[in-house]
Amino acid sequence: MTNQSIQMFHITPDELANLINQEIKKELSELKDSINRNDLQNPHLTRRETAKYFDISLNCVNDWVRKGILKPYKVGQRTFFKRSELLQVMFNRKSA
Question: Are 81 and 75 in contact (CB under 8 A)?
Answer without folding.
Answer: no
